[in-house]
């Protein structure tokens, strides 16, 4: 098993609670978890430790919001996401820990910027659409661009959440449709990433042992998120998430 101190394990446990919380309430919390895992563990290996925990959270999210997915959107996204995952895998074949750490830090800062832009765009919008984007050339182009970026960021850093959040919000999804579609999307994509991560040596026996302990903390996080999703002050929480994400990204870049 990875050698971690008591305080480092406590940090990983808190990050695991955020994984569960993000899957059933606010997806932006995942970027904070990513920064903590990459700071405590070797950056490259941290993505392999985090992936099974994300899948546990995905299963809980699907169990909660499974009836609200928009499958037409998912079908439109998956081909482009597959391209992004392959590109991310090729990158990980040659990237060392320093390159991955720098990439994760840069991706975190990029995702923080994307989230800020998303919030401002949403504030300027007069009203959200009642249905997702209809199929068409524009919708397919948007799905393709977001899908490739989302596939790359989720493969390299498990950081596809803000990209997909921006896409789903721009496509006109309301809360339940957003949560249901996002839950199925990340469950399917994260499970599909497992063979790539095993082949790259990111998931092995010792990482799974650590996951077995940390998974115990994902469960309460998911239930807290489910209980809070209708009560949480979304604006304040997103500001805290963005601030923590920026700090985490800078810490990784400057370390």
Automatic annotation (TrEMBL):
GO annotations of cellular component type: plasma membrane
Cellular compartments annotated: Cell membrane
InterPro entries tied to this protein: TM_pro_TauE-like, TSUP
Alphabetically ordered keywords of this record: Cell membrane, Membrane, Transmembrane, Transmembrane helix, Transport
Record keyword Metal-binding present: no
Main location: membrane
Pfam families xrefs: TauE
Membrane topology: Multi-pass membrane protein
Keyword Oxidoreductase tagged: no
Residue stretches spanning the membrane: 77-94, 176-196, 208-224
Family, per entry: Belongs to the 4-toluene sulfonate uptake permease (TSUP) (TC 2.A.102) family.
Protein name per its UniProtKB record: Probable membrane transporter protein
Organism: Streptomyces violaceusniger (strain Tu 4113)
